[in-house]
User: What shape does this take?
Amino acid sequence: GQNIDQPTEMTATEGAIVQINCTYQTSGFNGLFWYQQHAGEAPTFLSYNVLDGLEEKGRFSSFLSRSKGYSYLLLKELQMKDSASYLCAFMDSNYQLIWGAGTKLIIKP
Amino acid sequence: NAGVTQTPKFRVLKTGQSMTLLCAQDMNHEYMYWYRQDPGMGLRLIHYSVGEGTTAKGEVPDGYNVSRLKKQNFLLGLESAAPSQTSVYFCASSNPGVHTGELFFGEGSRLTVL
Assistant: This one.
């Protein structure tokens, strides 16, 4: 079967670093995606990993280990505007996205 | 740039009523999707389309129908609404190939069925 898991909620301090983990199980894999969703808004694309390793994009980085079925999103120099839900999703063998329930990140001053 | 536009943004229905959600995209994307998002759950795919005139069932298609008569439009219909269909509905679009998973979402349509 297929499943994907990420923490429900995390809290971090402005200016700090936070790592949001995502684990998945699937027999077919075509990439791992991270999206950001502010409350009451639409999800927006953040990153895509298909090979093992770290992809850096400004303050945000995403890591993938295919052998471990594991990914994380690393957010540096946290800002209040980073308060949002972060959605992890993998693309299965049918090129369909399977979504996690999202991690709500709360940033405190 | 409008991107993906959904109408209506909010709607309240009584059980048994019907309605149609309209999605329009101006990015010339081939693929379009309808998702629902419920608290504590991931986005769930209702129906999708890989091109004009084609549609396919997703994970939770029961109680919904779709049509893609024009490339830029993707309609989601509820024939007889049920309280279980109370949700936030998102339309999205993308292109095939390496960018298939980079979805562009509409702002969402919040539907309440009483």
In short: The radius of gyration of chain A is 13 Å. Chain A has a mean pLDDT of 96.
